[in-house]
Predict the structure.
Amino acid sequence: MSAMALYTPWRMDYITGAIDNKESGCFMCRAVNSNDELVVYRGNYCIVIMNKYPYNRGHLLIAPKRHVPGIVDLTDEELMECAMLIKASTCALSELLKPVDFNIGVNVGRIAGAGYEEHVHFHIVPRWNGDVNSIPVKYTLDAVINDIKELIPELSKLMRRCMSNDGGGPEVHTNKG
């Protein structure tokens, strides 16, 4: 079997380290303090941001609004809202994109693998059968044409519903087999 390459321009600047120098400072703080088009949801203490350099379609970041480096620096309110947003994110992504499972995690510190270690954030990465960072292992490829920004309006609406107290969000499914 021969090797196959897939062009992924949305990750190239990130992979090569050639991210626009105009974007110095904390991208999460910029998102908190502006009308950033990648913000999916704004809570009282935290925000949900569509990852500009996603591992997979629908990759979200959840971050406190305060600029803090680690989980131990979060207040109880911030930590609770992060947990609620993780739940709501999986709820909304389940309905919109129908992934089989999720990778959910946080890297605290450079040695632990944090790409941006100064502002703690959680990753929610939808996963499908056969994907390897969105590249199926077989010769056939699922073409995903939509830009990540096209997902945001519907995802925002679903996040609001999933965060509401009426329990109107869909049940999060996982692969049982």
